[in-house]
């Protein structure tokens, strides 16, 4: 198992800075929690990725890549903001803006259907994110 995953973590003592609260979701490698920044009182999300689940070098590289992608995403109201990345002997912690809007899929299921206008607004938001991230690569 890897001893160190992140090449440049923002810190190692995440529990000194953040108070962990309720679980928000689970994935293949980790769990996302709602947390409170003890210094500012801000509510944030923290994805805790267990090192014991990182079984191959590809898994380790995937986590490194995820953190680097988050660090380089532009500020945009439609893109979750990166705050910090921590690492200790058990896990990697990716701290980011808390988004409380829920999952698009869940909204679609709950509504049963979208009007053409509502679907157009959702699609426009998605395309704005793609445009912000990839505009230098494409001419619109």
Query: Major sheet, described briefly?
Result: 5 strands, antiparallel
Share of residues in helices? 25-40%
Please state roughly what percent of the residues sit in beta strands, choosing from under 5%, 5-15%, 15-25%, 25-35%, 35-45% or over 45%.
Answer: 25-35%
Strand line-up in the sheet with most strands: 1-2-3-5-4
- H/I helix tally: 4
What's the overall average pLDDT, rounded?
87
Structure description:
With 140 residues, the chain is α+β, with helices and mostly antiparallel strands. The protein is 34% helix and 27% strand. The chain has helices spanning 14-17, 57-72, 104-111, 116-134; strands at 18-26, 30-37, 43-50, 82-87, 91-97. The protein has a five-stranded antiparallel β-sheet with strand order 1-2-3-5-4. Strand 4 (82-87) and strand 5 form a beta hairpin.
Give a quick set of tags describing it:
globular, single chain, 5-stranded antiparallel beta sheet, alpha+beta, about 140 residues, about 25% strand, 5 strands
Brief characterization of the structure:
Helices cover 34% and strands 27% of the residues. It has four helices and five strands.
What is the topological layout?
Blueprint: H1 14-17, E1 18-26, E2 30-37, E3 43-50, H2 57-72, E4 82-87, E5 91-97, H3 104-111, H4 116-134
Antiparallel strand pairs: 1-2, 2-3, 3-5, 4-5
């Amino acid at each position: 198992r890897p001893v160190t995953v992140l090449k440049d973590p923002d810190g190692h003592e995440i529990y000194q800075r953040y108070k962990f609260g309720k679980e928000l979701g689970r994935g293949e490698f980790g769990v996302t929690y709602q947390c409170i920044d003890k210094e500012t009182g801000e509510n944030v999300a923290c994805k805790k990725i267990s090192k014991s689940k990182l079984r191959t070098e590809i898994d380790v590289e995937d986590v490194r890549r995820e953190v680097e992608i988050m660090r380089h995403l532009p500020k945009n109201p439609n893109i979750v903001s990166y705050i910090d990345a921590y690492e200790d002997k058990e896990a990697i912690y990716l701290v980011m803006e808390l988004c409380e809007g829920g999952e698009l899929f869940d909204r679609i299921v709950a509504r049963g259907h979208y009007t053409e206008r509502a679907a157009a607004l959702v699609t426009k938001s998605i395309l704005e994110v793609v445009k912000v991230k990839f505009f230098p690569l494409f001419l619109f």
